[in-house]
Structure prediction request, 342 residues.
Amino acid sequence: MNIQSDVYDITIVGSGPTGLYGAFYAGVRGMKTKILDALPELGGQLVTLYPEKWVFDVGGFPKILAKDLAKNLIAQAMTFAPTVCLDEKVLSVKTHSENGTKIFELVTDKGTAHLTKTIVLTAGIGAFKPKKLDKPGIEQFEGKGIHYFVNEKKVFKDKDVLIVGGGDSAVDWCLNLLDTAKKITLIHRSDQFRAHEESIRALMSSPIEIMTFHELRSVSGNERLEMAIVYDNRTIRETALRIDEIILNLGFHADLGPIKEWGLELDKVGIKVNYRMETSVEGIFAAGDVASHPGKLKLISTGFGEVVAAVNFAKNFIDPSAKVYPGHSTDLRNIPGAAKGN
Ligand SMILES: Cc1cc2nc3c(=O)[nH]c(=O)nc-3n(C[C@H](O)[C@H](O)[C@H](O)COP(=O)(O)OP(=O)(O)OC[C@H]3O[C@@H](n4cnc5c(N)ncnc54)[C@H](O)[C@@H]3O)c2cc1C
Prediction:
């Protein structure tokens, strides 16, 4: 076991939008901060699931690409130079006492123990994996035409693209690739789309070929994917489609995995928190998609507000003389630029 000797004031588990903003805010509160993430890059769902999707509902940005929002959040998070540990999945937590102070020991899959006075869990939907389709050819053509994530739109430039699914991701990708792909076909197993009303309206008036009540039977090709057989699930009639790329948007298996075994109180939504964003264990806070409280909305902007509360109460937890409410950012002299009032 590699035990890190430095004890941090706060360790943020998960570097999605909530964790990144939390890292910035912990710096504002003068806390020695560490961020841990299982993924090899910062940004969480914004960079992993939908980097090139427009985001319209974050305050201050009438319209911003998810990857650009992540870039801004990363720049802001780095203001106070937190320690960043990537590609490191948190597995377990232990507590011990050092001179009367509670210290948490977070052990990761790299066999490293990170020591910290408080923890803020911003683990989102957990370490997520796309749901896969067990159909002939799918596994064989993964990375050769079968996609579960879209990292670069240019891969689909002038291609015949088949999108499978009826949720937000499928509909969003149809619309986002309209200016890139040669032709887009969408198949969905029913005629009910679970997407934003505005997006469904845009989809219906687009040139995308929509095949409702259709499912994927099999795919084939040589070096790369070339053909998809789809079928009408009412008549079982098959149609062969000449296809270059397929995006499977069938949802994700989201699993909090080892965090579920920590003994924190959970419900169907996630980890239960009180108004301080504190979990059932003192000193462990949660914010963003992973945190559950009555009326929870899983949105980027929700996570921002929640993590500010979590960090401020974490500050007060380790130093009861520190105010929970720090005042406005213009009153804080440690933010670069704030002292000059610019
Ligand atoms: C297709 C799609 C479109 C969306 N569009 C919008 C939108 O337009 N507007 C909006 O407000 N919201 C949108 N959302 C929702 C939004 O993305 C989430 O609410 C937001 O990402 C939550 O942020 P988070 O930081 O809490 O979690 P996440 O972004 O999920 O980040 C969690 C991070 O924790 C890490 N992690 C998990 N477990 C561990 C572990 N054990 N150890 C270490 N690291 C771990 C993960 O690797 C990940 O990086 C969309 C979601 C999807 C799927």
